[in-house]
Design a protein that fits this description.
The chain has 148 residues and is mostly helical. The chain has a single domain, classed as AhpD-like (Up-down Bundle), CATH 1.20.1290.
Length: 148
């Protein structure tokens, strides 16, 4: 597959990178941040972002089993702890707004595991990876391809 275009305004790129960096830093859990970004990218079928974030997760030492079973995290038993499950459920709810909103039960479950600041950063992280996914998928940027 070839990219439709590599054009992306530098200001847009820089702003999105800044939001990504701020969300990751404020969230404070790099490994879980990568799992969240991978899960959103799976849902959005973004090969470019999957390739990038799987590599980053491996570099952080995320267990291979967690990466292998992420697409079926709900059925994976004790592979994911309750905190990870809450973050992944929130990721899916924000990414796939089937009912037009994030269900209260999903939000409340996440709020049990993350204080208000970390929860805000988690939502920002999910939002920005969805933006990146849409930028890459709509332009058909292939895995390992130049994104700009």
């Amino acid at each position: 597959m070839t990219a439709r275009t590599h054009r992306l305004d530098a200001g847009v790129r820089d702003a999105m990178q800044a939001v990504s960096a701020a969300a990751k830093k404020g969230f404070g859990d790099a490994a879980l941040a990568e799992l969240v970004m991978i899960r959103a990218s799976q849902l959005n079928r973004c090969a470019f972002c999957l390739d990038m974030h799987l590599g980053l997760a491996r570099g952080l030492g995320v267990e291979g089993r967690k990466l292998d079973l992420l697409d079926a995290w709900e059925e994976a038993g004790e592979v994911y702890d309750e905190r990870e499950r809450a973050a992944l459920a929130l990721t899916e709810a924000v990414t796939v707004l089937t009912d037009g909103f994030v269900p209260d039960t999903v939000y409340e479950a996440a709020a049990k595991h993350f204080d208000e600041a970390r929860l805000a950063h988690l939502i920002a992280l999910i939002t920005v990876i969805n933006g990146w996914n849409r930028l890459m998928v709509s332009r058909r940027i292939p895995p390992g391809g130049a994104p700009w």
